[in-house]
């Protein structure tokens, strides 16, 4: 996961859904 710690709050759900898809 190459996402900043500040963008993990709102991007965590979107990134996780696209990460496992």
Automatic annotation (TrEMBL):
It comes from the Eukaryota. GO terms for molecular function: structural constituent of ribosome. Residues 1-21 are annotated as: Disordered. It holds the Pfam family Ribosomal_L32p. Keywords: Chloroplast, Plastid, Ribonucleoprotein, Ribosomal protein. GO terms for biological process: translation. One of its GO terms (cellular component) is large ribosomal subunit. This is Ribosomal protein L32. It comes from Calceolaria arachnoidea. The gene is rpl32.
């Amino acid at each position: 996961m190459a996402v900043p710690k500040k963008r993990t709050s709102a991007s965590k759900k979107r990134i996780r859904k696209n990460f496992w898809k």
